[in-house]
Amino acid sequence: MSDTEQTVYDTVCELLQRYNREGRELRPETDLNAELNIDSVAAMDLIMEIEDKFDIDIPINLVGDLRTVKDLVATVRSQQEGA
Protein backbone atom coordinates (compact mmCIF):
# COMPACT_ATOMS: atom_id res chain seq x y z
CA MET A 1 0.00 0.00 0.00
CA SER A 2 1.42 3.37 -1.00
CA ASP A 3 1.66 6.27 1.44
CA THR A 4 -1.29 7.96 -0.26
CA GLU A 5 -3.40 4.80 -0.06
CA GLN A 6 -2.44 4.38 3.59
CA THR A 7 -3.45 7.97 4.34
CA VAL A 8 -6.81 7.47 2.60
CA TYR A 9 -7.29 4.14 4.42
CA ASP A 10 -6.51 5.73 7.80
CA THR A 11 -8.89 8.62 7.15
CA VAL A 12 -11.69 6.32 5.95
CA CYS A 13 -11.23 4.17 9.07
CA GLU A 14 -11.37 7.29 11.22
CA LEU A 15 -14.67 8.28 9.59
CA LEU A 16 -16.02 4.75 10.05
CA GLN A 17 -15.41 4.76 13.80
CA ARG A 18 -18.74 6.39 14.59
CA TYR A 19 -20.48 3.48 12.82
CA ASN A 20 -18.32 0.90 14.59
CA ARG A 21 -20.53 0.51 17.66
CA GLU A 22 -19.16 -2.92 18.54
CA GLY A 23 -15.55 -1.75 18.43
CA ARG A 24 -14.52 -4.19 15.71
CA GLU A 25 -11.03 -4.04 14.27
CA LEU A 26 -11.31 -2.36 10.89
CA ARG A 27 -9.50 -4.21 8.12
CA PRO A 28 -9.56 -3.71 4.35
CA GLU A 29 -11.97 -6.65 4.05
CA THR A 30 -14.36 -5.44 6.78
CA ASP A 31 -17.89 -5.67 5.35
CA LEU A 32 -19.68 -2.35 5.79
CA ASN A 33 -23.15 -3.85 6.05
CA ALA A 34 -22.60 -7.24 7.66
CA GLU A 35 -19.94 -6.24 10.19
CA LEU A 36 -20.67 -2.54 10.80
CA ASN A 37 -24.44 -2.64 10.16
CA ILE A 38 -24.25 0.37 7.85
CA ASP A 39 -27.66 0.62 6.19
CA SER A 40 -28.51 2.68 3.12
CA VAL A 41 -29.22 5.86 5.10
CA ALA A 42 -25.98 5.58 7.09
CA ALA A 43 -24.12 4.77 3.86
CA MET A 44 -25.30 8.02 2.29
CA ASP A 45 -24.23 9.96 5.40
CA LEU A 46 -20.84 8.26 5.25
CA ILE A 47 -20.45 9.00 1.54
CA MET A 48 -21.23 12.68 2.15
CA GLU A 49 -18.64 12.79 4.94
CA ILE A 50 -16.05 11.16 2.68
CA GLU A 51 -16.84 13.56 -0.17
CA ASP A 52 -16.44 16.54 2.17
CA LYS A 53 -13.25 15.22 3.77
CA PHE A 54 -11.52 14.44 0.46
CA ASP A 55 -13.20 17.16 -1.65
CA ILE A 56 -14.41 14.63 -4.22
CA ASP A 57 -17.74 13.52 -5.69
CA ILE A 58 -18.68 9.85 -5.59
CA PRO A 59 -21.27 9.07 -8.27
CA ILE A 60 -24.46 7.62 -6.81
CA ASN A 61 -24.24 4.64 -9.17
CA LEU A 62 -21.00 3.54 -7.45
CA VAL A 63 -22.44 3.59 -3.93
CA GLY A 64 -24.24 0.25 -4.34
CA ASP A 65 -20.95 -1.46 -5.18
CA LEU A 66 -19.21 -0.36 -1.98
CA ARG A 67 -19.11 -3.46 0.21
CA THR A 68 -15.84 -3.26 2.13
CA VAL A 69 -13.42 -0.72 3.57
CA LYS A 70 -11.11 -1.60 0.68
CA ASP A 71 -13.88 -0.69 -1.81
CA LEU A 72 -14.28 2.71 -0.15
CA VAL A 73 -10.56 3.39 -0.27
CA ALA A 74 -10.33 2.33 -3.93
CA THR A 75 -13.26 4.57 -4.84
CA VAL A 76 -11.75 7.56 -3.06
CA ARG A 77 -8.42 7.00 -4.81
CA SER A 78 -10.15 6.61 -8.17
CA GLN A 79 -12.05 9.87 -7.71
CA GLN A 80 -8.90 11.68 -6.54
CA GLU A 81 -7.15 10.57 -9.71
CA GLY A 82 -10.07 11.75 -11.82
CA ALA A 83 -10.98 8.32 -13.15
TrEMBL record:
InterPro entries assigned to the protein according to its UniProt record, in alphabetical order: ACP (IPR003231), ACP-like_sf (IPR036736), PP-bd_ACP (IPR009081), Ppantetheine_attach_site (IPR006162)
Gene3D superfamilies for the chain: ACP-like (1.10.1200.10)
Residues covered by the Carrier domain: 2-80
Biological pathway: Glycolipid biosynthesis; KDO(2)-lipid A biosynthesis
Keyword list, A-Z: Fatty acid biosynthesis, Fatty acid metabolism, Lipid biosynthesis, Lipid metabolism, Phosphopantetheine, Phosphoprotein
Protein name per UniProt: Acyl carrier protein AcpXL
Organism: Aquibaculum arenosum
